[in-house]
Structure formats: C-alpha cells, structure tokens
Amino acid sequence: MKRLESFEKKHDDYSHIKKDDEICSCCSCIQSEDFFNEIEEEEQFDLREFRGEIRFLIFMGVLFAICLITEEFFSEYVHSYLLNAAFLSLYLVCGLPVLKMAFRSLIKKDFFNEFTLMGGASLAAVAIGQMSESVGVMIFYRLGEAFQKKASSYSRRSIKALLAQKPMLARLLKDGKVENINPKDIVKGDIVQVLPGEVIPIDGIIISGVAQINSSAITGESKPVSAKVGTAVYGGTLSLDGLLTIKAAGPFKDSTISRMLEMVQNAVAHKSPTERFITRFAKWYTPAVFGLATLVALVPPLIGQGDFREWFYRGLVLLVISCPCALVISIPLGFFGGIGSASKKGILVKGANVFDALDKVTMAVFDKTGTLTYGRFEVVKILPLTGITEGDLLRMAATAETGSNHPLARSILAAAGNITMPLNAQVTQFAGKGMLLKTDLDTIIVGSKALLQDYGITAPSISELGTVVHVAKNDKYQGYLIVADSIREESYQSVKELRELGIKKVYMLTGDCEAVAKSVSDKLGLDGYRSELLPGDKVAALKSLCGGETKKTLFVGDGINDGPVLVTSETGIAMGGFGSQVAIEVADVVILNDSLLKVAELLRVAKKTRTIVWQNVFMAMGVKGVFLVFGAVGVAGLWEAVFADVGVALMAILNSTRTSKV
Fold this sequence. Notes:
About 50% of the residues lie in helices and about 15% in strands. With about 650 residues, it is of the alpha+beta class.
C-alpha cells in the first residue's frame, strides 16, 4: 500500500497540467514550477525505492505468468471465472493508482494525458474480455514509469552537482562567537568563517587566512588557486585547506552561486523553438489519434466491414499509442542535460532557445580588449613635449585616471605608483574616449585624439603600434603615452576551432586605433575588423558587418562595456562574468572565466544537444507512425502498443542523457 501511495504522491499535483503553452509530461513530471525543490525531492526517489518498485513488479509479473500458463495449459481444470478473477485482481493491484490518477484528471477536465489513455484503454480491454492484455499493459506501463523516472533523474545529475555547491550554512562571527546561520540571512559587511573542506557561502574578501580554492563547480576549472588576505572569493567555491575569515561583499541573493542557480532555473522556463513546436504538436496529436481510434472502432462495423469487437480492440491499440510521452519528456530533458553540461564547464546558458540560435550561427564577432587580448595593458613608452619630464607626464595622466576602472587606466596607475585623486576634484568619463579631471587649479584631459579635439586642443597623429593616450593640461598639449596589450594564447586556437565548427566569418570590433586593430586581425587571421569605435558605435558596426541581419551572429565581449551590442546580436556571450552582475543581466550566455576556448565548447554542446533532441523527435514520431499503421490494420495488439509507447519513451530519455556527457 505504501508503494501505491508513493506512486500517487509523485503525480498528485495537477496544477501544472496544460497551463497556457505547457504540456504536463507526467511520465516523469519534469516540468514542475518549483524547479530546484523538485530536484531535491527527486533525491527521495532513491535506489532503494526504485529497487522496491522493481521487486513489486517482478512479483506481479510472476503471478501474471502463472495465470497465463494456467490459461494456456490448464484451463480445462480451472473454471474461467476463477481465472478472470485472478487477472482482475492483478489488474486492480497494478492499475488502481493509474485509474485514480485518470479519475482526477477527468475531474480537472484534462482528457488527454497518459493516465486517461492507459486507464481508459485497459478498462475497455477488461470490458471486452481481454483480461490478460489489460494486466500486461499495466505491469509494463508501471515498469516503464520506474525506468523513466530513474533515467530522468540520471539526466539531471549535472544540475544536481551544481545544486550540491549551494551552501547550506554559514558560520557568522559576531562578538567573538561563531553562530551557524542560513546563508540567506547574511548581509553586507558580515564576517563569516569558513573551515577547510567547506563551501564558501557568499562573495567577499578574505580578511584572514590562506587556503587553496577549488572553483571547478563555478568555472569548470579543476586546478585550485591560492587565496590570501585581500583575495576576492565567490560563493559556491570550495576551500580545500586552511581556515578563512571572509567579509561579505553583499547578501546571499547577490552572490555568484545564487545568481548561477537562479539563472539555470530560469533557463528551463525559456523554451526553445523545438520545444514549442513539440508542445503545439502534442496538443493536437493526442486528440487527433483519439479521434482516429474512435473512427477505427466505430466506422468499419457500422458499414458492415467486420466484427465490432475486433475493430473496437484495434481502436484501443491506437489509444495506447496516442500517448505523446516520448516527445514531451525527452525534448526538455535533452536541453536540460545540455544546459547542465555547459554549467559544469563554467558556461551559463540562459535558456534552451540559445542552443537553437547557436546551431544556426555562421558569423562570430569579438570585442578586442579583454576578449581576444588579455586586457593587461602596460605603459611601454612615454613621450612628453620638450620641457616636461616623463615622470611628470605619467603622473599627470595617472591623476586624471584615478576616477576610472578601465584596463588602460589601471595600467597607467600601476606604472605611476602611489597616485591619489586630488581633493575637491571633479571627474568626467567619456565612454570610449578618455577622462577629464578638474580641480581648483588645473584641468587635465587624458584620452584619444578625438577627445582633445572636442576641447579645441590639437594632438598629433601617431602611427606607432599600440594604444595612444594623449595628455593635455590647461588647454595645452603635454605629450602622449603608448600602452600595449598582448593577444591571448588561446585566441588563435579559438578562431581555428570556430571555423571547424561551421563559423564562416570571424570579425573584431574595437575602440583601439587602426594600426593596433589591423595588427591583431592579421595575426589571428580574421575576416575583418572595425576600429576606433565608441561603445555606441559597435551596434551599428555589428549590423553593418552582417548586412543588418543579426539572426545568425554571435558576439563575444566583456559584458560591461559591450552591453548594447550583446543585446543586439542573436546570441550575446559575456566573457569573464565571474561576479559580474551586468554580464548576467544582458548576455544570453555567461562564461565564468576568461578562457576563449569555452566559446567553441559552447558551440559543441549546443550542436550535440540539438542533434540528440532531433534524434528523439524522429525516433518517437517514426515508431509511433509505424505502430499506428500496424494497430489500424490489426497487426499490432495491446502488448505491442504498450511496448511501443513505453519502449520508445525510455529509449528517448536514455538518449537524452547523452547530452550531459558532451
């Protein structure tokens, strides 16, 4: 009885059945609204319960086999009433939970789900005397349910691995005492203690201790990194050794692990065009086959083309085949596995729709600074005008850059050393151009030639390789600095792999000068570039490169300066989104570290996932189509129908689990 209650409990909530554009995939109930609660509850369907269900069904199968043998070889010694009573008892024991679910479905006016179809067909088989087949339908249906549930659980293991990194407690240090609290109760500025081997609960800064940090669950990189006082750490990473004391940078809801979990949860709700197609198809497929089954059962006998009982039986066969479980379950599970596989690699995909878009991409466009290059600038040359020392020019530039966090500004500040912003200074940042700093005594402008010209200051044209940073003070030109960046080692391999994956054109957009852009483009073998672009110009440049049609274009940038173009492209990929709220908000995909090779990995996952999904579609439709014909002409019976329905669903689910191994 406990097992029957367990079966009912797993299918008891019908609030999600046929709501707007949704289809209940009750074969495994995989479309629950509370995504992560469902995954946690799914752990209750453990190996012990699975084995218990299998043992129960084996016992029922043995009794069923005894009844079949008795019917076949010893029917003259056993009264038919006793034999039918035995079959009916087995049917009720195995089928009562299904019949109860079917009844509840009918009350809720849901007439076409697996319970009503299986329950109705098996009851009708009992009514026309097909006792043994009705028992067989229920036993094999329950067996298929058990294996489908197990396979569905298996396909989610990559998401479960991410869920396992969700911190369950935080050790709050307060007034010299340690208090175990829920990470959700942490606020900015709280001091948290992390023991060796524990998951770091929040984003923050280490204020004491040294440890090796494993961030594989977040970035996909298995190599631990050393962390010490002043190092920024992120929620969901693992402290391998050493006692750490961390100052929280914000509440748990703003932590990296919390945003990752939220993003993966939301990804399930973003259906791909393939899923929407299957949802629409399933809505008319089952009623259509039900109508066909009704016609097969009633029309031939009415026109004198055969026995009513025979045609009614054929209609029941079509009824069993009409269940769309194989499609409704396997398609979301396939995308689900793909999203999980990507998350294990440190790639967060915002929805299954992204996979469909990536599969059609033929053009890749990259930002330069921090994407194709390291973004680690160094001041390689300082050229002041006569009468100004190199040190004075560098300090002048650094003073203006104290109000900026741009990589160029950081390199100038690093070269200048200990420079602080003057008191009462007013700083203005011009996106893509530079900085203006104004004090009571001086006005300093640092940036591009165009910025100086905007203020009526003439700056020379410089043809040297590198980024030119001009400096002016009090409306007078002072000189310039050359700041250089270097190409990432993996950029060469990344471009090569993208071409191998079917990307026909690879372009670069940059705010840097023509000479630098051409040098990087030539070294990487790109198909073209656009240089000296302001952030707002990149959208127009992207549209220009793809002829105004961005549907087959992906853009890879840093997620901060490239927000508009990330949104404009069909698929926006933000690099180095580790801890970047802006990246998570604007991009379709967030790569949590700076490895450019992840872009090719993402494309491989997307293409493999869609291949597996469409394999499931064609397999399910093909098998269903064949058995619809077989059932209509009388070649297939209820046995074959339930094997076709349960078997193809199980094969599709098992095939879907391959996406988690990509």
